[in-house]
Design goal:
heterodimer, A: 350 residues, mainly beta, 5-stranded antiparallel beta sheet, 4-stranded antiparallel beta sheet, 3 helices, B: 480 residues, 8-stranded antiparallel beta sheet, 7-stranded mixed beta barrel, 5 helices, 38 strands, 12% helix
């Protein structure tokens, strides 16, 4: 009898302590409770990716290789393949408002003067010359820079503020003047060995930064992609690679690593947006080269599965413009809204 | 010899014996070598590859496209193609429609187009002078009829059109029904046209010119015997082509990898790691035929970009991809040496065979000899059965007397192995060389047999040495 009483009292105390939290809840101010509830909703409810533009072309005889969103809201699309390749501008109703056929363009960019700067792969058909050319809206060639063979086919070209043109070639980044003089270059101009300085494995984009440096996106071959910034003197001053982010904090390690970068954009605050082909993800990387955020648009593919992502350009607001081929063979060109893409937080992309 | 010396000699002999099988396995024929390799792909997964290196400069060497059963659109396994043609080795060829067997792109055999297309893909061509060329080709076919002008074809071996002309070769293999048809028949003086009613097949070495819609009227009234000429328009730097096959994509140019797969319309599963077949040429002019296994444990396959780098590694200065996936196969001396991803041979619409035999044509059709012709004292000996049957003769072999008897109509020929005299309709005829046994096969003098059966036998050297035999009928019932 005397032993049972202490046992009962201990049990009663345990019960009382366990009920303490419940009692505390009832004393929380209503506004604080409401705020906590809202925050809980924000961290628990994930927004599916949504679109500002979605252009699905019922064309299966060629592929949408590249896209740019023009200032007027139209899309400038490069279509490549075995039939009827060309560059075309598509309005928001999906109508082709300008086109130039018979060119296998790896990229096309609208210029401030209204012309279009095209990186022509030289692939079949005529004239089978790898080149960069500027076309006016009447379809006339106003400038051309030819490369010596199809092995030098330009992947991308952009016009710089100094009037020069920055080209991405298979193993080289090159800047040429309007008079076609090469004034800067980076890379060996041919395949190099792993670790060899200046080796570019598979460069896909290069952008001149406001500080005069060049941001280079090297997709790599398999998990050896990297994005890095070089000075005019070719010194690497910033980079992030697909190798494990070894200096990441425990929290950051939950984020996926870079795999196959497609494009990059340096923001005013010094961070860099990078899109990834293998993971359909846009990364935010800080000035120390650390991944701070990763958002994936792969949820879009549930209703329209994509088999090949050819292009993903990050925009300053965190949105992404993509060009892809779907499983059906049709093309999909879309602008994915940055705010609504899923935040990949726990190391697992959807 | 001292003991030490004997031991060294024995070791040396054993070493030579040990390496000899390797030498023998690699050298398939003069100028034809075979080897295999293993390495990892860019994902670090293992791959297995197989290489044929061919010197096209060796006499009678051909890297020749063949159609399935020699009929346009038909499909045949690579083993059968290789066995019936007497090939030294073979690989699968270009892409084709899995349903119809129609090639994706151009197909030219012996300088004669069997299919043309303006599809934007890369073609590879072998010239009559032994050169090789890579690039884009979109030939145009025209037919010139004396007195009727030049007619542009909408295609060759293509389906009927609403309005226009299509040309059909003997390989079409089926009767053609059209608004109006002309048969263009080969003669000693070139092609001559004659009109036909109803369905008609193209004769060997000839064509059917079919017209539909308003174009059909242009063929009406063409007089029998009108001279005709088929003109294949090619760019100036694509002349004297012997073989053309479209592949995709261009892989190597100037010794550097080319990244053009997407621009040639390849996407989806085709650009993922897969089994591959490729053709390249080295700086020394040697042709490389390469197959890589894929989609299986032990060989994961390659992307097209990896394939380009592989061809550069193997020494190619130019290279093109051929059909891959389940089509990727290599046949060497009697067997498929790779591991097709379908787990069995796929029936192919076309393949590439390596031959080393004097080309023989009977009534404009290639006579493939499963044993290569033999030159003896200036005379060409060919396998008995093939030549007699192609010329329409019945044959009988007497093993006891080692005598072959061939009968065609009223002509009876008796040839006994080793005897320098043949018996023709009971009369002895002296031979420059007797029939003989070569590697277990009875070989008979080709010119003697052909001319005795009433055929014309011409040895030509234009575009390389070849024998052209025209039978009295100008065509036979047995074409293989």
């Amino acid at each position: 009898m005397s032993n049972k009483l202490p046992t009962f009292l201990v049990g009663l105390l345990c019960l009382l302590f366990s009920a303490t939290a419940a009692f505390a809840d009832t004393t929380m101010p209503p506004d604080l409770q409401q705020l906590m509830g809202q925050q809980a909703e924000q961290t628990m409810v994930e927004q599916p990716p949504s679109l500002a533009r979605d252009h699905i072309a019922d064309i299966t005889y060629n592929l949408a290789r590249d896209v740019q969103k023009l200032p007027n809201g139209n899309l400038l699309i490069c279509r490549v393949g075995a039939w009827m390749p060309g560059v075309m501008e598509v309005d928001q109703q999906g109508q082709v408002v300008w086109s130039y056929y018979g060119i296998q363009a790896n990229s096309a960019r609208g210029l401030a003067n209204g012309n279009i700067l095209v990186a022509d792969s030289g692939a079949p058909g005529a004239p089978y010359v790898a080149r960069v050319l500027e076309l006016n809206r009447q379809g006339k060639k106003v400038w051309e820079y030819a490369l010596p063979s199809l092995a030098y086919a330009p992947r991308y070209a952009e016009r710089l503020s100094n009037g020069n043109t920055l080209l991405v070639l298979p193993f080289e980044i090159r800047e040429v003047t309007p008079q076609k003089k090469v004034v800067w270059q980076y890379g060996l101009g041919k395949p190099g060995k792993t670790g060899q300085p200046g080796t570019l494995v598979r460069p896909v984009r290069a952008h001149r930064l406001g500080n005069g440096n060049t941001l280079i996106v090297d997709q790599g071959h398999y998990k050896n992609g990297k994005v890095f910034e070089v000075t005019p003197g070719k010194k690497v001053v910033w980079q992030i690679s697909a190798a494990a982010n070894t200096t990441a904090s425990k929290e950051d390690q939950k984020l996926p690593a870079l795999a196959a970068p497609l494009d990059a954009l340096r923001l005013e605050d010094g961070s860099t947006l990078i899109t990834d082909k293998k993971q359909d993800t846009i990364f935010t990387v800080d000035s120390q080269g650390q991944i701070k955020q990763a958002k994936s648009w792969v949820g879009l593919y549930k209703t329209a599965p994509v088999t090949d992502l050819w292009c993903a350009e990050p925009l300053a607001d965190g949105s992404v413009v993509i060009a892809a081929t779907m499983v059906s063979g049709r093309s999909r060109v879309a602008e994915v809204i940055g705010e609504t893409m899923k935040v990949v937080w726990n190391g697992a992309a959807e | 010899m001292k003991v030490k010396g004997k031991v060294i000699l024995i070791v040396l002999c054993l070493s030579i014996l040990w390496t000899m099988p390797a030498w023998a396995a690699d050298q398939l024929a003069q100028g034809v070598q075979y080897r295999s390799f293993e390495r990892n792909n860019w994902e670090g997964k293992p791959i297995k590859g197989y290489v044929l290196e061919v010197d096209p400069g060796v006499k009678y060497t051909e890297i020749r496209p063949v159609m399935g059963n020699e009929v346009f659109g038909q499909r045949e396994t690579l083993s059968k193609m290789a066995e019936r043609t007497g090939a030294i080795a073979a690989v699968n060829g270009g892409f084709f429609d899995m349903g119809s067997g129609v090639p994706v792109g151009n197909l030219v055999i012996d300088g004669k187009p069997e299919y043309i297309s303006d599809i934007l893909k890369t073609s590879v061509a072998f010239t009559t002078s032994g050169g090789i060329k890579f690039g884009y080709l979109a030939p145009k076919i025209k037919v010139e009829l004396t007195g009727s002008g030049l007619l542009t074809m909408k295609g060759i071996n293509a389906p009927a059109v609403n309005d226009g002309f299509v040309l059909y070769t003997h390989a079409w293999g089926k009767e053609v029904y059209a608004g109006n048809c002309l048969v263009l028949s080969p003669t000693q003086n070139g092609l001559q046209a004659y009109a036909v009613a109803g369905g008609v097949k193209a004769p060997p070495g000839g064509y059917v010119l079919a017209g539909w819609g308003s174009s059909a009227g242009q063929l009406a009234g063409v007089k029998e015997g009108t001279k005709a000429k088929v003109i294949t328009e090619m760019p100036a730097d694509w002349q004297n082509l012997r073989y053309v096959l479209t592949g995709s994509p261009l892989l190597v140019e100037g010794g550097l990898p080319v990244d053009q797969a997407v621009n040639e319309g390849l996407w989806g599963q085709v650009v993922k790691p897969s089994p591959r077949t490729a053709l390249g040429v080295t700086a020394q002019g040697k042709v490389l035929l390469v197959v890589v296994d894929g989609r299986q444990e032990g060989s994961a396959g390659l992307t097209l970009e990896e394939l380009a780098y592989l061809m550069v590694d193997l020494g190619a200065v130019q290279a093109i991809g051929l059909d891959g996936g389940g089509s990727s196969e290599m046949w060497v001396k009697g067997k498929i040496v790779n591991n097709p991803s379908d787990k069995k041979e796929r029936s192919l619409a076309n393949g590439l065979i390596i031959l080393q035999q004097m080309p023989v044509y009977v009534d404009y059709q290639r006579l493939y000899l499963d044993v290569a012709p033999v030159l003896d004292n200036g005379r060409t000996l060919v396998p008995m059965r093939k030549i007699f049957e192609r010329l329409g003769a019945d044959i009988d072999w007497n093993a006891e007397t080692q005598t072959v008897t061939a009968t065609k109509g009223e002509v009876k020929i008796e040839l006994t192995l080793g005897k320098t005299a043949a018996v023709v309709n009971g009369k002895n005829i002296k031979l420059d060389v007797p029939a003989k046994l070569v590697d277990g096969r009875t070989m008979v003098p080709m010119r003697f047999v052909g001319e005795t059966l009433g055929a014309k036998v011409n040895y030509v050297t234009t575009n390389g040495p070849a024998v052209h035999i025209i039978s009295p009928e100008g065509g036979t019932a047995h074409e293989q």
